[in-house]
Structures are given as structure tokens and as C-alpha cells.
Design a protein that fits this description.
The protein is α+β, with helices and mostly antiparallel strands. It is about 45% helix and about 15% strand. The chain has two domains: about 1-120, no CATH class; about 125-205, no CATH class. The protein has a five-stranded antiparallel beta sheet with strand order 1-2-3-5-4, covered by helices on one side. A hairpin with a 3-residue loop joins β1 (about 1-5) and β2. α1 (about 40-50) runs antiparallel to α3. The protein is globular, with a radius of gyration of 18 Å. It starts with a strand and ends with a helix. Residues about 1-35 have low confidence and may be disordered.
Amino acid sequence: MTAAWRGPLACLALAGLVTGCTSGSDPQPAQESATGLSHEEQMQDMADDYGITAPPEVDVVREITPDESVTVIADCMRDAGWPAQIVDGVAEYEFTLQQEEEFNRSHLTCHAQYPIDQRYTRPWTDEQVALAYEHVTSVWIPCLAQHGVELPAPSEAVFRQSPQSGWYDSQALFTQLQTLEESGEIESVEWLQEECPQWPPDSVLFPQE
């Protein structure tokens, strides 16, 4: 039996062996709070997704950016005893179904120690959306096209409805990237993600206050 599900991480269960995958390359979805999600709110949302009623209380080591989340959390999980490897910008973990609850608590603990900086969890301003749209349509999509990726540019109205990713089929895009990697047309999915960054630099999109 094969089962797939998504929460704070995407997991695939195969004959009792679970492979968990997490990716942190995209900025956080817009939230209702003008100040962004607090550390406690981030952890409670993740705890709810995992079904953990009593989240562990841990000290924050430091706040991190979405771009470094995958690497930082993977390092934390390795330190906690969970082997991890990063493939095409996605962290992969292996654990048995019997270990799932323990894994989830470890994963939650690592995110509690390294929460996303609140400036990344705030709703985007009109200026940020405009900057992102300009980058996506004039830099990201043309760059992908140069490497054989087909992704139609959205209208500004469609983009503004869901600027982070809702305007395109992310799974279909990833399938294209995997096909190009397997055919040798690109070095790797991770290489293309670095070659064609989806967003402007953090210093531009999320300037320090």
C-alpha cells in the first residue's frame, strides 16, 4: 500500500518505511496578522498539523530565513539522530511508521529552535507584490525558458490573488524540471533553482527595518 500526505512536510509511506520531505525555498504564505506569525503561532500551527497536543517548550537558537530553512532544519534533525539528505533543495528523512510520532516531535522541536523570522510571515505589501511580479515575469520565467521550461506568465491581476505560488501548477513545474534533469538538459533541479531564482534577493523583497 502506498499513501501520500502533506503537512509541514511531505511524506511518502511505502511498505512501512516513511520518507519525509521538506522544502523551504518559497516565502511564507500571507497571514492575516499585520505583524506576521509569532514563534508560538508558528509552532502551534505545526503542532496542530502533526496532531501534537502538548508541543515541547524549547529556547529559540536564532531566527532564520525561508531560504536557509531546509539546510538549518536538516542539520538540526541530524543532530537529533535523524539521518537527512538534501536532494534538489528538498530535505529527505527515513523512518518507520512506528517512529513517526517521535520524528514529528523532533521535527517540531527543530522548527521551534529555528523559527522563521516574522518579517517573512507578514502579508506582502503592494510594493512587495509589485517587486515580486516584476522579477517573476522579467527574470524568473525568461530564465526558465532559456533552459527549456514552459511556464506561461500570469497577468498581474492573477498574480496578485496568490503571489507566492497559487498562480501556477507547482507539481507540473517540478515534473518538467525532473524530466530535464533526467535527460541531462540541466545539471540538476537544485542547480536550476540557483541559476533562476524565483524571487528577488531577500535584501530587496524583505529589507531590514
